Amino acid sequence: MKKVVLTVVLALLCNFLASAQFGKIKLDKAVDAAAKGVKSFTLSDAEIKGYADEYMQWSDAHNPVCKTTDKDKGMKEVADRLAKIVSVVPANLTKELNLNILSYYVIDVNAFACANGDIRVFAALMDLMTDDQILAVIGHEIGHIVNKDSKDAFATALRVSALKDAAGAVGGNTVQKLNDAQLSDLAESLANAQYSQKQENAADAYGYEFLKKCGKDPNNMASSLGVLLKLQEEAGTPENSKFNKLFSSHPDLKKRIETLNKMN
Ligand SMILES: [Zn+2]
Fold this sequence. Notes:
By secondary structure, the protein is mostly helical. The protein has helices at 8-13, 18-21, 28-35, 45-62, 73-86, 91-97, 123-128, 131-146, 149-160, 180-191, 197-213, 220-234, 242-247, 253-261; strands spanning 100-104, 111-113, 118-122.
């Protein structure tokens, strides 16, 4: 990236190292919350969708979203490239899942999906990959949406952060207006969340089939992980490298690639 754009919020979001492996969501905070006696309460699908919309509006307002109409040449290039990549996603899938796929112009190697169908692919990740590998990452993220991983993780994050004091006061289809502190709290909670190995493998398998549906070589799913593995291997020791710090908690890339290669 020639141009580095970071916002304060990004400092929270960058932990989304999900980044590297497109979404590792661990439920540490949920476990902590349970231990502290945070009550679980029901959230309807409509509520989760409403809060996800609210959260993503906030996230988009705090991060540089690349647009095809951007005056900034670099941001426009990223937006144009992503629009071209996304153009092969089947229209019925986009409609059914309410997909909205955009890029943030930031230096983190990352991508994430939110429960409302929003997917954000970071420009630094796009810099490292071919168009078809980026499509694979998008397919993997769609897999998390289809498999309800994004929804479950978001509902958990809501319960332990933004709505932690609201137990009993929510229910039905009432979506509260979250304040800035609640939204920051939610961002942090999501950043600390991780998906299980099983969820990641399922999302990889979805990405593999998705590439076929898009008329692309499914091996791009494994090769996109290979790009990240190479980055990890080049990164050196954790003390010297922000990349290795980013990847150190994810020793599973090799395993995921092996699993995908067995699908051939
Ligand atoms: Zn993932």
